[in-house]
């Protein structure tokens, strides 16, 4: 039998494509296959930095980890990062290209197609199997002529397509049938099966529907995956509106993350959500802010615009009132907001200047060149016992003139601290993945928090459980013809 590449598509966004792709990657890697993930085009505000200093989607970084390999920008050759106003920053092979409107982006179709084809062919020469992931739905008939991520990519890869549907939201059989009917005729031969995801309850009650579905569609349902609570990163920021992290029993710490309109890299906070007795919430209402012990202003893809949002919606005044009383931390764009002013004379994000909170005597000036760094950073001034890891993704250059601010790392201005005024600021993403830094935070609140497993240990454990679950719930052979 001949091994073929496979592709996971979905009836819509947020049906579980990324997580199922990661699970299949780990399942195949555990079987000894040399496997790699691939998503031709990803639209996301969660990105990471590879070890060679290039930017790619966090979902594909997780999938690479599931494959037990290092992330490579060829796995996500085009990344679109929405900046607001109907525009996105286009990242090509890990490097910023330009900010364009969606209409202008589609004019770049041929050159983008060339980039993704070359990236895929290059990867496929090095691996036994590529597990591709689609985007949204292949049945978006208004976008099919511009497609480089769904059916067109499956054709290029000659991949077997499996379409995932979310039964938890209802209407999964109609979603399967409708999606298949709207797929262009030349691509239907590539579709080999449907996978029901997020099933709760008795499978025997679902089986009659699976059998009856054969009367409506020639493509079989080849798997039913139960609803699986996991601690892996979520790619869709829309889920932050419904995300709940309330834990029963004693609560040692309440952490509130302000849900900015252009929030980015909210995957930074997954390690916090995994810790018992720590409650994490995403704050959208002003009245909920003060209920938290620790307030975090997260990263932003449009820092100037989000600072304006905080000003107009009362958060600015409320945070000013809480200054020195509650611990406040800013990460990346949130760090820039802690200063006196953000200057964007070049229009890198949103042309103009805006006043910051003034919690730290510093000024940030936006620059066209994007800083992309990943590294291990040595401690300074005795606050940490060991080095920590993280990565930077930002356009701003920040000058700190504050004598009361102390560097926690040897790299000046990368992670700073003012105990008197209860302020922490950093440019490092992924900082909460470090148990060393987590314990530093808990000590600020005189809390003894036991971390039984590191974030990476939990992630590995979950990927293996997910791989086993998928293997037990798929009825056929995914990869062999």
What can you tell me about this protein's structure?
The chain is an alpha/beta fold. It has two domains: 6-232 and 460-473, 3-Layer(aba) Sandwich (Rossmann fold); 253-448, Rossmann fold, CATH 3.40.50. Helix content is 27%, strand content 28%. The protein has 13 helices and 25 strands. The protein has helices spanning 17-30, 58-66, 102-106, 109-124, 151-157, 172-182, 203-213, 270-273, 303-312, 315-322, 333-337, 435-444, 455-473; strands at residues 6-10, 35-38, 41-43, 47-49, 55-57, 78-84, 87-92, 95-101, 129-133, 160-166, 191-199, 221-226, 253-258, 263-264, 278-283, 294-297, 299-300, 327-331, 341-344, 352-355, 362-377, 388-400, 406-407, 415-418, 423-426. A seven-stranded mixed β-sheet has the order 15-13-16-18-25-24-23. A hairpin with a 2-residue loop joins strand 6 and strand 7 (87-92). The protein is globular and about 70 Å long. The model has no long low-confidence stretch (mean pLDDT 93).
Please estimate the helix content.
25-40%
Going across the major beta sheet, what is the strand order? 15-13-16-18-25-24-23
Work out the count of structural domains. 2
**Poorly predicted tracts of residues:** none
Globally, the shape reads globular
Features:
481 residues; alpha/beta; Rossmann fold; 2 domains; 28% strand; ligase; ligase activity; GATase_3
In a nutshell, what does this entry contain?
This protein is of the alpha/beta class and 481 residues long.
């Amino acid at each position: 039998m001949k091994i073929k590449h496979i592709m996971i598509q979905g009836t819509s966004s947020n049906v579980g494509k990324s997580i199922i792709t990661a699970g299949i990657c780990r399942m195949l890697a555990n079987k000894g296959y040399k496997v790699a993930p691939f998503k031709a085009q990803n639209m996301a505000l969660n990105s990471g930095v590879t070890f060679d200093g290039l930017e790619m989607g966090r979902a594909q970084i997780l999938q690479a980890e599931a494959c037990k390999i290092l992330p490579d920008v060829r796995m996500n050759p085009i990344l679109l990062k929405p900046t607001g106003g109907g525009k996105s920053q286009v990242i090509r092979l890990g490097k910023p290209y330009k900010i364009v409107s969606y209409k202008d982006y589609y004019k770049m179709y041929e050159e983008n197609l060339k980039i993704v084809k070359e990236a895929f062919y290059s990867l496929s020469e090095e691996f036994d199997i590529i597990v591709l992931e689609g985007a949204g739905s292949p049945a978006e008939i208004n976008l099919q002529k511009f497609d480089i991520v769904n059916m067109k990519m499956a054709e290029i890869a000659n991949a077997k397509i499996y379409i995932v549907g979310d039964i938890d939201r209802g209407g999964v059989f109609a979603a399967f049938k409708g999606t298949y009917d709207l797929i262009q005729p030349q691509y239907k031969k590539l579709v080999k099966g449907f996978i029901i995801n997020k099933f709760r309850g008795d499978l025997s009650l679902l089986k009659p529907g699976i059998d009856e579905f054969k009367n409506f569609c020639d493509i079989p349902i080849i798997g039913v995956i139960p609803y699986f609570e996991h601690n892996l990163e979520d790619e869709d920021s829309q889920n932050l509106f419904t995300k709940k992290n309330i834990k029963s029993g004693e609560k040692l710490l309440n952490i509130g993350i302000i849900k900015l309109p252009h929030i980015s890299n909210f995957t930074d906070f997954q390690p916090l959500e995994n810790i018992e007795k720590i409650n994490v919430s995403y704050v959208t209402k002003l009245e909920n802010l003060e209920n938290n012990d620790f307030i975090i202003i997260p990263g932003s893809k449009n820092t100037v615009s989000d600072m304006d949002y905080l000003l107009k919606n009362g958060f600015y005044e409320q945070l000013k009132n809480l200054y020195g009383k509650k611990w406040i931390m800013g990460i990346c764009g949130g760090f820039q907001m802690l200063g006196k002013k953000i200057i964007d004379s070049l229009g890198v994000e949103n042309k103009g200047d805006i006043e910051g909170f003034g919690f730290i005597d510093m000024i940030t000036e936006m620059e066209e060149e994007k800083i992309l760094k990943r590294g291990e950073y040595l401690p300074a001034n005795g606050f940490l016992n060991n080095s920590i890891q993280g990565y930077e993704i930002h356009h701003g250059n920040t000058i700190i003139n504050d004598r009361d601010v102390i560097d926690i790392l040897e790299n000046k201005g990368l992670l700073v601290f003012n105990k008197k005024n209860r302020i922490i600021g950093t440019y490092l993403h992924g900082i909460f993945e470090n148990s060393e830094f987590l314990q530093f935070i808990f000590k600020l609140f005189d809390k003894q928090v036991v971390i039984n497993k590191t974030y990476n240990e939990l992630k590995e454990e979950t990927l293996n459980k997910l791989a086993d679950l998928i293997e037990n719930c798929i009825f056929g052979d995914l990869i062999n013809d």
